[in-house]
């Protein structure tokens, strides 16, 4: 063999060996997810992020989304903290007593632009929330919100307090429960996945959802009436998190690369997807002849009154949780939201 050919062969062998070694020794992180692989959170958010991790780390870190969740949705923070899964995502709403400092983002009028909400919440975490020990012992990669939660009803518009009186409304968590009770309706605690059968059997009159959930949970025929409230009746907060030991085991370069596509970048993408889903769902429902209402002044005033009381309760809880200045936290979130929503 000629010397030049020999050198080329050796170079090719070295390159292939290097690529093989990178693949062989890649860190494969296991992600537990509790939505079906057909759900848009999987296809438009988690899957693209997982592929981006492999790309930005040049194959040194891979994320495998497990075919089946390793626990129930409320268990996913602990699954990552304890190392049962390397990466999880979930809903802070499922553990309200643990994450009291984040309540402010789930109260009435927390926003309707999911992208602005999500990025503002990430900024709030960096500026204020990480002082709360509830977030310690784990790597919080990013956060997200879903836009405006609204009233949806099976047989009539809910535009005033009289409309709401005695109506059985599905909800989740103490914040939503307090809102419904304060408005004179009857809260029924149940997961969104149970809404269809409960509406079918008349156990429920209506249900709290975002617009996209009405379509994605196949509730279009069961919930033809919707009450749109500026900046939402309630919100929900989500996390993307990683086991701290696994995080620290990664190289500095890989951690930096992953942080570059997480944090604000992930929050922005999360919110953008939810905005698209909500917008598309609203068009679908309007085209199907659904009725959209807005609350009258008395109902809006009552919602504002409930928010004021809940904010006072939250401020006390947030201080107990280690937040030095809850009012500054709320002000920063609202200022950031307004600036981002205006873009």
UniProtKB/TrEMBL annotation:
One of its GO terms (biological process) is transmembrane transport. The keyword Magnesium does not apply. Gene3D superfamilies: Bacterial extracellular solute-binding protein, family 7. The keyword Signal applies. Keywords: Signal. Coiled coil: none annotated. Residues 1-21 form the signal peptide. PANTHER family: BLL6794 PROTEIN, PTHR33376. This is TRAP-type C4-dicarboxylate transport system, substrate-binding protein. It comes from Thiothrix eikelboomii. The lineage of its organism: Bacteria, Pseudomonadati, Pseudomonadota, Gammaproteobacteria, Thiotrichales.
């Amino acid at each position: 063999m000629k010397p030049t050919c020999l050198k080329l062969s050796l170079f090719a062998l070295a390159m292939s060996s290097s690529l093989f070694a990178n693949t062989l020794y890649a860190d494969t992180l296991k992600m537990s997810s509790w939505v079906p692989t057909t759900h848009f959170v999987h296809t438009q958010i988690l899957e693209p992020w997982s592929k981006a991790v492999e790309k930005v780390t040049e194959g040194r870190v891979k994320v495998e989304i497990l075919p089946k969740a390793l626990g129930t949705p409320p268990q996913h923070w602990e699954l990552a903290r304890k190392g049962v899964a390397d990466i999880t995502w979930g809903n802070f709403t499922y553990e309200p007593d643990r994450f009291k400092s984040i309540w402010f983002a789930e109260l009435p009028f927390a926003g309707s632009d999911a992208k602005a909400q999500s990025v503002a919440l990430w900024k709030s975490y960096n500026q204020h929330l990480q002082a709360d020990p509830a977030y310690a012992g784990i790597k919080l990669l990013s956060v997200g919100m879903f836009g405006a939660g609204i009233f949806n009803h099976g047989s009539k518009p809910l535009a005033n307090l009289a409309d709401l009186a005695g109506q059985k409304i599905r909800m989740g968590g103490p914040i939503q429960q307090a809102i419904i009770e304060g408005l004179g309706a009857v809260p029924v605690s149940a997961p969104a996945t149970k809404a269809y059968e409960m509406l079918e059997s008349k156990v429920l009159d209506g249900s709290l959802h975002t617009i996209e959930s009405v379509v994605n949970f196949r509730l279009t025929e069961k919930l033809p009436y919707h009450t749109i409230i500026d900046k939402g009746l309630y919100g929900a907060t989500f996390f993307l998190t990683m086991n701290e030991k696994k995080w620290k085991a990664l190289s500095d370069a890989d951690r930096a690369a992953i942080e570059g596509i997480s944090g604000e970048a992930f929050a922005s993408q999360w919110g953008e997807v939810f905005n698209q889903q909500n917008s598309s769902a609203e068009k679908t429902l309007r085209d199907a002849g659904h009725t959209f209402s807005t609350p009258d002044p008395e109902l809006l005033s009552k919602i504002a009154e409930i928010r004021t009381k809940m904010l006072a309760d939250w401020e006390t809880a947030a201080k107990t949780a280690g937040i030095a200045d809850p009012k500054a936290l709320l002000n920063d979130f609202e200022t950031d939201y307004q600036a981002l929503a205006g873009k």
